[in-house]
Amino acid sequence: MQDKLPAFSDIEAAAVRLRGEAVETPLLESAGLNALTGGRVLVKAECLQRTGSFKFRGAWNLISQLEGAGGVVAYSSGNHAQGVAAAARLKGLPALIVMPADTPDIKQANTRALGAEIVTYDRATQSREEIAGQIARERGWVIVPPYEHPHIIAGQGTAGLEMCRQAAARGIRLDAVVVGASGGGLTAGIALAVEALSPETAVYCAEPEGFDDYRRSLESGRRESNPSAAGSICDALLSPTPGELTFAINRPRLAGGLVASEAQAGRAMRAAFDHLKIVAEPGGAVALATMLSGAIETKDRTIAVVVSGGNVDAGLFCRLTAAG
Amino acid sequence: MQDKLPAFSDIEAAAVRLRGEAVETPLLESAGLNALTGGRVLVKAECLQRTGSFKFRGAWNLISQLEGAGGVVAYSSGNHAQGVAAAARLKGLPALIVMPADTPDIKQANTRALGAEIVTYDRATQSREEIAGQIARERGWVIVPPYEHPHIIAGQGTAGLEMCRQAAARGIRLDAVVVGASGGGLTAGIALAVEALSPETAVYCAEPEGFDDYRRSLESGRRESNPSAAGSICDALLSPTPGELTFAINRPRLAGGLVASEAQAGRAMRAAFDHLKIVAEPGGAVALATMLSGAIETKDRTIAVVVSGGNVDAGLFCRLTAAG
Q1: Residue A3 pLDDT grade (very low, low, confident, very high; cuts 50, 70, 90)
Q2: Which B residues 222-261 touch A at CB under 8 Å?
Q3: Cα B163 to Cα B168: distance, rounded to the nearest angstrom
Q4: Which of A62, A141, A196, B31 has the most CB atoms around it within 10 Å of its CB?
Q5: What is the set of domains in chain B, with CATH numbers?
Q6: pTM
């Protein structure tokens, strides 16, 4: 089951499951962003999704289909943790999240506030996958992986389904779509939706400088790794290497990978504040950053980008946007 | 025409005119805000509307119906100016905005960026209504008033229509709705929509401390005035007295008026940032502030509030939310 690639019909089925539970996030546009790019920029505001990122979509698509499970286990220090905790609570199941011991208190507190139990581990010496696997076996609970599962990918793909339908309803033809990539689940789901609904649209992934494993993997044709596992403010986009399933989907479908620096991500957070009135976290702003930095040609083109999350502390937000 | 009260059918007609032009803003909810209030809080995020506030709705509803007009004139230093400028450009008409000479450069620049011409006046010695009236007569252009017009009120009411339908689609019964009031056009439009679609729901207006003319007018039964015309960070909510038309609609329909302090508005801006990932300007956060401050009973009740705008400088935003 885990190894089966999802199809577009799985995304359509996920959209039915998510109806009334997930936010149909708006596809925003502003005269200011259009003027800055010389083109037309449409922003799928997934920071407005339940729990502040797109992660609830995949988590609910998987967890809502569980039958007879006693609980769920996930490993994540950030957005996936909150998405899983919220989805489990909605399903009436207990959730346990394996988090690094150095996870900021605020993220631990947010996850606990959603009813989840937290187990911490030492990043330097322990494997989160092993810890999660052991707990799942002991308790007979189900692991909800962050991207390597067809239900997760199909759930994230509903953001792309909505985006294509929202654009079509306004008579808009998309030249390209840009999506921030970490493990690549959101990108894969959106690539499947775009292939079905808007096949002439090019799909790009976007990554922070120094963490462009997906871009390099698309170029070399095999799954490349990042030299380091930490060290960027874009904490949502630091997976070490593309997922196997997600790469199988993305490799033949993506037009390429784009890169933005931390400073460019900060300026994109400020642009999202000024022109769209949304809160983007650093990793959530990377796709928009590629539009504003010239990493992709924008002149006279219509491009949709996903702002994938908004879970950022107010202090960091203000420091980064002041520099923008 | 200007003196005729709008009916619910006018709001339905406005919604058809706005389709595809205005954003259908989401009705957001978060576990965090619900926990803070002990009830259920739904936020109609009009800061995500085109031009960053609900004002585009009324402006487009009026301007899209103009036939044979050579242009439009409005007086406003803020959100109405941008709404009118954007609607006029969409209609292909020139727009002139009368603004106080001390309007911040950024707001003048934003309005000019939307294609409008700006004429400034001295707040202390000149009347903006007279200046606008004279220009309109000279040029044969049409004045777009900020709230005293049935088309404006009906346009703003589409926010209420959407809110009621979004709640109903999720099976949610609203105990109350809270809307920030300045001239009272948004409140009046929403009161008409709620009366038609959710008649058991109580509607309240919300104002900044010291500028509670609407609250006092509802109590006394006649249009009261504020002692001062300026001096609050809630710059969107400083109209000196209720509109005649809007008061005729609101007086028999509102359950009362609520008040929030500047500090409470700042804390509500921070709560909107933390829990909803939206940018609220001070005046736009006043309705939410009444929920968080205990001005209205929230325990075990379901209440929708409108966050009416997000046009705030990053510097001010960070100062106000840091205090929250």
Answers
A1: low
A2: none
A3: 9
A4: A62
A5: 8-53+149-322 (3.40.50.1100), 56-143 (3.40.50.1100)
A6: 0.96
